[in-house]
Specification:
With about 550 residues, the chain is an alpha/beta fold. The protein has a domain of about 210 residues: Rossmann fold. The protein has 22 helices and 20 strands. It is globular and about 70 Å long.
């Protein structure tokens, strides 16, 4: 029996006539072998996901369609199968793990029933046997309290638990091939590390072939046997993981490897510490009963921020690091005035700003700006980019003509052409939209910028560009920055100091170099150990 589970031969996928290129996938040929993990790597738009969807015939035809090539699985060309025949393959012999489980799972159906559907369609098991199999799957993916989780809805589970449910669903009938499309991109580093170990463990136990799609070479270093690098729909490099990671031959692959954030921490500037611009003292924020649907809460109180104190010096940057639920974003919202703290105070340039009304806070907005995680959600889709950037200064009293002249200079400052002012947000890539968000924050000439996970959704190469831009702007404009992230590598790239937040409390704080060299808190050590590819980067 051949070791090749799936063979893609000269695959061409055509895009609509109005697209920026003719083909999403252009003449790709590759194989996935039994009991191996093939990582397909490339930036957004490289054709990775289109190729994966072609395998299961999930393309939005007729606008995006396969025009040439074959996809051979277990001796059959999947492109030649009837609709009924390909449905028997989907979820049965080939399973898919999607990037966002909350979108892929039915929100009004309990997760146990969703796994049960797969077994009902693709196996001859009776209801009681299916229930037993589902419990076994819960244990296989290391989910505790299997019976409770089976009877839970997706929104009642954490992101890591939902992704484990997706993996359990993919494994339900022991497929020959699993396609995992960026399954860890939206997860915290510790949860990501757990999911990567789980996929590798299950793949070895079941002998399954895995196509793992990612843009992060740190993830590749953790799990890949072989690597295929894609760019603009073409396969530019293919080889063993060790060769691609340590001796890449193609310039593009070398750029992707170099874009992985370094584990070399930033060194704090010598000399006396500058006076603090932002001071947070004993801040407390609790969410209580009555905050649920229609005001009926569960009666449980959540202490999102617990007696947090920190300071950011003038011209300095502080990284606030922690997993989802640690209180990072709640703390940022309290600082900027989008939430009212229950206790404690926030001072900006010596002036108390916590507890101010929206009206009293408005004049202070020029000194305090925020860059959000999702630039597409934070930019008004109905307004041109120029208007979005100019609006803040105009509200602060800057004449319209002057505000628009500043817009063009700001766009050049963040690496975009002045003509971009006339376009809408949807006409830009994710990295370009984040640059627009930064330009909007800079428009009112702030003293402090709060950057809330500004690069977590970006490709590593774009991520590197945005981080370098933020660092350059901070130094040239003497800005102070509070940088929120769950990734210590990212924190080390732009910040001289780090504060580690866990369950609403600061568990460690100090110079970035000191924390990387000698972490004191077990939680900080766990975050450092969970960084994908840490062993590879230390030996590279």
């Amino acid at each position: 029996m051949s070791d090749v589970v799936l063979g893609i031969e000269n695959l061409i996928v055509e895009l609509p006539s109005w697209s920026d290129r003719k083909h999403a996938v252009s003449g790709i040929s590759l194989e996935i072998r039994r009991n191996e993990i093939l990582c397909v790597v490339g930036e957004s738009g490289s054709g990775k996901s289109v190729m994966a969807k072609s395998i299961l015939r999930l393309l939005p035809e007729p606008h995006v369609r396969v025009t040439e090539g074959r996809i051979v699985f277990e001796g059959e060309d999947l492109l030649a199968l009837s609709d009924e025949e390909i449905r028997a393959v989907r979820g049965g012999r080939i399973a898919m793990i999607f990037q966002e489980p909350m979108v892929a799972l039915n929100p009004v159906m309990k997760v146990g029933r969703q796994i049960d559907e797969v077994l009902e369609v693709h196996s001859a098991l009776k209801p009681a046997q299916r229930r037993t199999r589902i419990v076994e799957l819960m244990h296989d993916v290391h989910l505790p309290e299997a019976e409770r989780i089976i009877d839970s809805y997706p929104h009642e589970l954490s992101g890591g638990q939902r992704q484990r449910v997706m993996i359990a669903m993919a494994l339900a009938v022991e497929p020959a091939l699993i396609i995992a499309d960026e399954p860890t991109t939206a997860l915290d580093v510790t949860t990501q590390a757990q999911i990567l170990r789980l996929i590798r463990e299950l793949q070895r136990a079941h002998g399954t072939a895995v196509m793992f799609i990612t843009h992060d070479f740190g993830v590749v270093a953790e799990i890949a046997d072989r690597v295929a690098v894609m760019r603009h729909g073409e396969l530019v490099e293919l080889g063993a993981a060790a060769e691609i990671l340590n001796r890449p031959q193609v310039d593009y692959t070398q750029e992707l490897v170099a874009a992985v954030p370094s584990l070399t921490p930033r060194v704090r500037d010598p000399g006396p510490a500058p006076a603090p611009l932002l001071v947070v003292h004993d801040l407390v924020k609790t969410y209580g009963a009555g905050s649920g649907f229609l005001g009926f809460g569960s009666g449980r109180k959540v202490k999102a921020v617990q007696n947090v104190s920190l300071a950011v010096g003038r011209g300095r940057s502080l990284a606030l690091v922690g997993e989802s639920g640690s209180g990072k974003s709640t703390l940022a919202r309290c600082i900027i005035g989008l939430e009212t703290p229950d206790a404690g105070e926030v001072r900006l340039d010596g002036e108390r700003i916590s507890g101010l009304s929206r009206r009293d806070m408005r004049p202070l907005r020029r000194d305090l700006q925020m860059v959000f995680q999702d630039p597409f959600a934070s930019l008004n889709p109905r307004h041109r980019v120029g208007h979005i950037i100019a609006l803040g200064p105009m509200i602060q009293g800057v004449p319209q003509e002057q505000a628009w002249a500043d817009v063009r200079e700001l766009l050049k400052l963040v690496g975009l052409k002045p003509e971009a002012a006339e376009r809408y947000p949807h006409e830009f890539s994710g990295g370009q939209r984040q640059r627009i968000g930064i330009a909007r924050a800079l428009a009112v000439k702030p003293k402090l910028i709060i950057a809330d996970e500004p690069v977590s959704a970006l490709d590593v190469s774009v991520q590197k560009q945005v981080l370098e831009l933020l660092d350059e702007l901070r130094r040239t404009l003497n800005l102070s920055m509070l940088f929120i992230t769950h990734d210590l590598r990212v924190a080390a790239t732009v910040c001289e100091e780090i504060a580690v937040l866990q369950n609403g409390r600061v568990v460690e704080r100090g110079a970035t170099a000191d924390i990387f060299a000698r972490p004191q808190a077990p939680y900080t050590r766990a975050l450092l150990d969970a960084v994908p590819g840490v062993a590879w980067q230390k030996t590279a």
